Amino acid sequence: MKALVYVGLKPGVLDPQGRTIARSLNDLGFGEVESALQGKVIELDLTGDDLTAAEARVVEMCEKLLANTVIENYRIEMRAE
Amino acid sequence: MQTAVIRFPASNCDRDAAVALEKLTGRKPLIIWHRETELPAGVGFVVMPGGFSYGDYLRSGAIASRSPIVQDIKAKSERGLAVAGFCNGFQILTEAGMLPGALMRNKNLKFVCRPEKLTVTHSNSKFTSKYEAKSEVVFPVAHHDGNYFADKETVGRLEKEGRVLFRYTDNPNGSVNDIAGIVNEGGNVFGMMPHPERAIDPLHGGTDGIDLFKSILETL
């Protein structure tokens, strides 16, 4: 199974990269872009088949390493595949 | 006084730190590999050096902060061990939870490398006692992720408790309140983005960093 971990900056934390992306899109004629937030996706291949138990472990991974919760939020998507 | 410098994969200021410590203590510091699990007995001051540990993968300092030796240093710092982190070392200390806040991408997205003017906010700390309060010093900076951030409450507490020891006079990275260096609640763990260890010899272009080392070494 797989876990997709999305890590991004918390609301209220200035994201200079996102701001630059939004401005660049505006310059390219995409005036409807009001803001952009840049984050990252970490894709984990996991052994086992218990999605619920695996997700609890992935939460632990996020808290211990994958996200810095001082500035970042994370969201987990589990896939059986 | 026995001192130590921790070496991580892709540390690159470990030698600068070692030269500074040897010059000021007259004794070679121990160079300790990050896989070690325990600091040797008798080490009184530890420097986390600058560099790009683990290629800044994931987040600057994140992977290094989880290495075995850091867990031992963290535990000992809670019992008073003196620790200083410069540049990547500062990032490692925040990632390890030994100092509050985080170092984010510079506000203008540029890598900044230049001599930087700083103000010593006060001299009532273990790391600044040899400086005159409000004096100006010049340390080099060289970083991409030096934008100090902490939530309002944390910044308020740092300010109120006098834990901001250095401030930029011309903020190069967007750090909140121009914060360049902070100390922990116990006053024994210090981190800053600029490099005092690269300002200890006239050939460096200045020697303003000497008093920082003298300040902390004198307390040991």
TrEMBL record, chain A:
The keyword Nucleotide-binding applies. Pathway: Purine metabolism; IMP biosynthesis via de novo pathway; 5-amino-1-(5-phospho-D-ribosyl)imidazole from N(2)-formyl-N(1)-(5-phospho-D-ribosyl)glycinamide: step 1/2. It catalyses: N(2)-formyl-N(1)-(5-phospho-beta-D-ribosyl)glycinamide + L-glutamine + ATP + H2O = 2-formamido-N(1)-(5-O-phospho-beta-D-ribosyl)acetamidine + L-glutamate + ADP + phosphate + H(+). Pfam families: PurS. It is found in: Cytoplasm. Its main location: cytoplasm. InterPro entries: PurS (IPR003850), PurS-like_sf (IPR036604). GO terms for biological process: 'de novo' IMP biosynthetic process. One of its GO terms (molecular function) is phosphoribosylformylglycinamidine synthase activity. Keywords: ATP-binding, Cytoplasm, Ligase, Nucleotide-binding, Purine biosynthesis. One of its GO terms (cellular component) is cytoplasm. Its EC number is 6.3.5.3. PANTHER family: PHOSPHORIBOSYLFORMYLGLYCINAMIDINE SYNTHASE SUBUNIT PURS. Part of the FGAM synthase complex composed of 1 PurL, 1 PurQ and 2 PurS subunits. Part of the phosphoribosylformylglycinamidine synthase complex involved in the purines biosynthetic pathway. Catalyzes the ATP-dependent conversion of formylglycinamide ribonucleotide (FGAR) and glutamine to yield formylglycinamidine ribonucleotide (FGAM) and glutamate. The FGAM synthase complex is composed of three subunits. PurQ produces an ammonia molecule by converting glutamine to glutamate. PurL transfers the ammonia molecule to FGAR to form FGAM in an ATP-dependent manner. Belongs to the PurS family. HAMAP family: PurS. This is Phosphoribosylformylglycinamidine synthase subunit PurS. It comes from Litorimonas cladophorae.
UniProtKB/TrEMBL annotation, chain B:
Keywords: ATP-binding, Cytoplasm, Glutamine amidotransferase, Hydrolase, Ligase, Nucleotide-binding, Purine biosynthesis. GO terms for biological process: 'de novo' IMP biosynthetic process. Pathway: Purine metabolism; IMP biosynthesis via de novo pathway; 5-amino-1-(5-phospho-D-ribosyl)imidazole from N(2)-formyl-N(1)-(5-phospho-D-ribosyl)glycinamide: step 1/2. It catalyses: L-glutamine + H2O = L-glutamate + NH4(+); N(2)-formyl-N(1)-(5-phospho-beta-D-ribosyl)glycinamide + L-glutamine + ATP + H2O = 2-formamido-N(1)-(5-O-phospho-beta-D-ribosyl)acetamidine + L-glutamate + ADP + phosphate + H(+). Its main location: cytoplasm. Its EC number is 6.3.5.3, 3.5.1.2. It is found in: Cytoplasm. Gene3D superfamilies: 3.40.50.880. Pfam families: GATase_5. The active site is at 87 (nucleophile), 195, 197. Part of the phosphoribosylformylglycinamidine synthase complex involved in the purines biosynthetic pathway. Catalyzes the ATP-dependent conversion of formylglycinamide ribonucleotide (FGAR) and glutamine to yield formylglycinamidine ribonucleotide (FGAM) and glutamate. The FGAM synthase complex is composed of three subunits. PurQ produces an ammonia molecule by converting glutamine to glutamate. PurL transfers the ammonia molecule to FGAR to form FGAM in an ATP-dependent manner. Part of the FGAM synthase complex composed of 1 PurL, 1 PurQ and 2 PurS subunits. This is Phosphoribosylformylglycinamidine synthase subunit PurQ.
